[in-house]
Amino acid sequence: MKRASLVSLIFFGSLSAINSALAMDYPLPPAGSRLIGQNQTYIIQEGDNNLQAIARRFNTAAHLILETNNTIAPVYPAPGTVITIPSQMLLPDTPREGIVVNLAELRLYYYPPGENSVQVYPLGIGQLGLDTPVTVTRISQKIPNPTWTPTAGIRARSLEQGIKLPPVVPAGPNNPLGRFAMRLGVGNGEYLIHGTSAPDSVGLRVSSGCMRMNAPDIKALFAQASVGTRVQIINEPVKFSVEPDGKRYVEVHRPLATAEGENPQTLTIAQSAGLSSFITQDGSDKQLVNKALARRAGIPVVVSAGGESQVQSGSLSAQNSRLPEGGHEQAIQ
Hints:
19 strands, single chain, 24% strand
């Protein structure tokens, strides 16, 4: 699997275009730390098709870019617009084993066994009313070149939209499951992690409960994750950490709506006992935490008492770095 990390450089001129997603492979942080990666900047180019295409170049989701850049046009940002690519994050507060999915941030984390690294992928999840379940389970089956048998519910919903689905969709480029699928041992086996024939659906709540990945990503994950791999699915819009250097961070995502018409930007975020304790501890600046909870920028911000809320600076080390055509990419300094 190719590894991609981003470098603190500015490139001008004509570079090779990126037409597929790249898995981000981060070294695990030191003991007691959960902070990985660095945010990047990118200047929208005349030839950029839409925000989804830009998101795929940086192996993230358009939804996450919009969280971080909440003043840009949601589909076609104007050329010349400088955006932040949210490639810094806090690891979920879970065992660093197997696959971890955080529905609220539309990301899948994979911890390769025996390696000091974590791979991070964007993900499409279940739509409102057909939610991907929060659970701990295992991969029960791996299916190359899967066929797709639409359920009765899917067939009925498609008919309401004027689409009559065949009883079985054969394997191939038009199969909604893509080229690879992994069945989870939860429910009646109806939940899968799979590819998709609709790449713009990755990073959205559009499925019937399964989890969709970009074609290169599911291919890479399928090759590594074995039957029996642990899978933990959580739904936590707020992550927080006290780092070894004493800095305190919160990373706040817009929570998933639970009813039609809810606004994720203003929806109340339930506070766990751990988060409540973090906020009230002497080292935390409650005003900065509340500001982060209101802004919901989807990236780690410093909320240490006596400090200013800011994005962690620095750059990533590069291994096989690849940049968008004609683009301008750099780590935030």
